[in-house]
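Sequence design from tokenized structure. All designs in this work follow the same two-part layout: the structure record, then the generated sequence. An example of the structure record is given first.
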């Protein structure tokens, strides 16, 4: 966090003018932390995959999975040409072992346009998978994870593939490329790479932040 705070001294993008009919602000984190999952752009070899996300949940070391608010359902066929927020929400502080994701995939989803045209139409039955990736949630802090959809192993002569799903942490940009934007409705400051637009981190704030003020010390 010290490196992030120092980086903000070099790059700052503040957003947040009040709007006449702005939605009610999200609750301020007090005794909880937060997790935000962003979907990474799909690689070229996964262009034919059609995936619909049904739910995303965080898996604690003890107890049942905790569902997150879903912001994006379509994770294929051109919808992930850029990084997008997939899911997020408040979580109790503690250790987590990964994510549980329920999804549907088009029958015979393929990695090429030619084979995609020959795929059997209609969605396959909903499936759920556990993506192991240990992470911690701390009180009044937010964690960001990246969800990646890639082409998996082929199954048959038609090169049909089941998507390979994975989770990772975002890459931290160089200090000179780090920028920040405040969100009044979400009570958050989003850190991102101003060159690529990729997410770098999220800082929870008090209610309705409208800018940033930093102490050089």
């Amino acid at each position: 966090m010290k490196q992030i705070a120092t980086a903000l001294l070099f790059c700052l993008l503040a957003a947040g003018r009040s709007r006449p009919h702005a939605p009610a602000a999200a609750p301020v984190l007090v005794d909880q932390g937060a997790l935000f999952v962003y979907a990474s752009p799909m690689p070229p070899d996964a262009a034919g995959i059609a995936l619909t996300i049904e739910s995303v949940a965080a898996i604690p070391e003890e107890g049942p999975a905790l569902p997150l608010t879903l912001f994006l359902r379509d994770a294929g066929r051109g919808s992930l040409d850029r990084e997008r927020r997939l899911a997020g929400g408040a979580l109790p502080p503690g250790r987590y072992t990964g994510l549980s994701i329920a999804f549907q995939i088009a029958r015979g989803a393929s990695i090429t346009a030619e084979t995609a045209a020959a795929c059997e139409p209609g969605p396959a039955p909903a499936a759920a998978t556990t993506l192991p990736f240990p992470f911690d949630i701390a009180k009044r802090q937010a964690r960001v994870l990246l969800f990646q959809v890639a082409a998996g192993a082929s199954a048959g002569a038609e090169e049909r593939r089941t998507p390979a799903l994975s989770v990772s942490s975002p890459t931290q940009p160089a200090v000179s490329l780090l920028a920040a934007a405040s969100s009044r409705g979400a009570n958050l400051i989003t850190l991102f790479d101003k060159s690529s637009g990729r997410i770098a981190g999220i800082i929870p704030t008090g209610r309705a932040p409208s800018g940033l003020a930093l102490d050089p010390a």
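The first helix runs from residue 2 to 8. We note this feature because it recurs in several other targets discussed in the main text.
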